[in-house]
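Data deposition worksheet. Section B asks for the primary sequence of the deposited chain exactly as it was used as input, without tags or linkers unless they were present during the calculation. Section C holds the resulting structure in token form. Section D is free text for depositor observations; keep each observation to a single sentence. Incomplete worksheets are returned to the depositor.
Section A, Depositor: J.P.
Section B:
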Amino acid sequence: MFDKILGFLGSGPAEQITGYFKQKAALKQQLKLAKLTGKISFQKAKYEAKAKQQANVHTWEMASLANSGYK
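Section C:
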């Protein structure tokens, strides 16, 4: 795409400008991917912590029932 737009400038500057914009687009895509990966890992950790908390509550409730049953 950039090759066609900047082709009229000649081979030297056009290649450098095209390379710059291609590299900029690739870096922008990598940044978006890194942000998305970070969001996914944050949500995953959040849900794992919630599941662990619920398991701990269940264990505590079962221990409480076992300790306060009919005697």
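Section D:
Helices lie at 2-6, 11-67.
Residues 7 and 31 are 28 Å apart (CA to CA).
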